[in-house]
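@channel sequence for tomorrow's demo:
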Amino acid sequence: MSDVFISRQPLVNRQSHIIATRLRLNLGADGQLGDMNDAVRTLNAVSELWPKGEKPVFVGFGATACEAALLDWGTPENATLEIRASDLVNGNGAELVSALKDWQPSVCLHFDRHASQALATGVSIRFIGFDRQTLALPQIKLLAARTRHLGIGIAFNVEQPDDFFACMDAGLAAAASWFFLKPGPAPAKALNPGQANLIRLLNLVRNNAEVREIESALKQDVAISYKLLRYINSAGMGLSCEIQSFRHAVTLLGYEKLHRWLSLLLSSASKDPMAPAMMHSALVRARQMELLAEGLVERNEIDNLFVTGAFSLLDALFGVSMEKIVETMHLPESISDALLGNGGRYQPFLDLVRSGEGDDGAAIAEQAAMLGLTAEQFNRSQLQALAFAETIEC
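structure tokens (generated this afternoon):
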């Protein structure tokens, strides 16, 4: 029996919104191929945390062939199974085809040289995935046109923003990848006025400034006040009453919690067209870091882990170097060190959540072991963080 770590990717559409999540079960993080029994065990262990709602959740198995044994999993309605075309026509393919026809789950077919045979099996297909690393853009455009009536075309392994838009122009509906976190042009030399004002507010709150001084800073930008109250009143906060004013927020939440929500607001202050996807990713990182840290750091440091995750994408969001951002903020040394990659006690947590955005199960297992965390603890935190991000209005 192998430990299975679940990694994730967002599925991003042309409008730069995350329309689905892709979960990959890294079967056999110890280097040995796992099997569908390991997959079923892992999925059942997180069943009560499965993402709710109508957004599809893709479930893939990497290089491990999908087998009929997967059908022992009570698949949620919004789950979409990623199945390679070769899995439907290999030695165990007939059993899998029969089970899929009986069970009729949502299926994403990974297009490969066996695709024609797989499509002829009669298995109902909802999505068709094209691997950008093995298919040239002209091929994708041709194949997308030919298969449009069979399923919704999506791209996998898209590395750069320009490549993403080229795939969209080729007729695909979305792409599953982290292309939007890639460095853009040369970083700006300074923050824009709106970003600088938010950082000033954060510094005031962190230093426990007088409420009237913070209110005065907020009044300089009504939009900030509105967005801050919207964040605090989001479902993710779980408050029993609605916050009506900043003074009310300070009274009810205190400075530490208010700093947390201003941190989220800062993460949303980007004009980048990919900002919605980056903001969602920052939210997942923030929540997952604080969940993983429970019991491993002092309670008064949990919010610092959240802030570290929330700020970890500010350089991509603002197009400004992380060094410049940290220079303008009065952050605890442990947060600054992690953001700058200088080590410290928060660095292993940030490294772990970042590894969960890749497809290397062994790397995730190694990072988790450094913190004494199990695969199930990591997987549960991943799904809980995804659920949290969905409740926040970006």
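heads up for whoever presents: The longest helix spans residues 246-267.
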